[in-house]
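Morning - nicotinamide-adenine-dinucleotide inputs below, output right after.
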Amino acid sequence: MTGRIEDRVALIIGAARGIGRGIAERFAAEGAKLVLADREEEAGRATAEELGATFVKTDISEMADAESAVATAVDIHGRLDIMVQNAGIFPWQLIENTSPADWDRVMAVNLRGAFNAARAALPPMKSQRYGRMLFTSSITGPHVTSPGHGHYSATKAGINGFIRSAALEFSSYGITVNGVEPGNIMTEAVKQQRGAEFIRSMEDAIPLGRLGTPRDVAGAFLFLASGDADYVTGTTIVVDGGQLLPEGRDFRILPA
Ligand SMILES: NC(=O)c1ccc[n+]([C@@H]2O[C@H](COP(=O)([O-])OP(=O)(O)OC[C@H]3O[C@@H](n4cnc5c(N)ncnc54)[C@H](O)[C@@H]3O)[C@@H](O)[C@H]2O)c1
């Protein structure tokens, strides 16, 4: 433990499993007081119990749920220092097969969810004159994409624009707003939804030679949540094993 966020009160949304769970594990190990929110009750409660955290069932696409997650943190701990909005969905679906309802659901969770979380966390952070709002964006959308990620790419590019606006608006309240852009991170959801062929092709495209882990991503969140990032706002950190770097597919061909 480095003590960098010791006793800070953190609400992590989308924390039952995957990257959100990785962030929760890292924050718990650093001594933060945690409230975990997720729409999946069983897995969420199990994660919270393991980490000595409070769980609150939350669908982040609903403003009322975002507000009650924040209220839970404030009721129990008296304040809210760090809010991480990590919940996201990534159906793999060509644009020609995407219905307006499919499109709206991805927007509602990923993009409206970011707004709901920020809007709900604002009042306590504003009155404290301190807050860290953090969002899970992606390299997919802001920088690159692949077939089947139309709605998803739009939401993650949108989150980056929202981060910049919110950072500016909240700067005079002592609140910083930042995000992390993971590359391809090995989570259960990725294993189930993408399959072995997709994963092999991604491994091949990553200069560091492997998909990332939730712990790799959690380190960037810890930095942004800590005092080391006091002067950082309105930006995103790429955590992708170098995946964005190659100009072409054959980056392993070297000069003689
Ligand atoms: N895994 C990757 O390669 C990768 C890469 C870039 C970005 N991301 C982003 O990271 C985040 C987490 O991804 P993951 O791979 O860990 O996925 P995951 O499915 O394993 O975890 C997502 C968590 O969010 C919860 N969730 C989903 N919809 C919700 C809602 N409406 N309200 C509350 N909770 C909800 C899920 O129940 C789950 O616990 C997402 O925002 C995703 O877009 C993932």
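Note: Strands lie at 9-13, 33-38, 54-57, 82-85, 131-136, 175-182, 236-239.

O.
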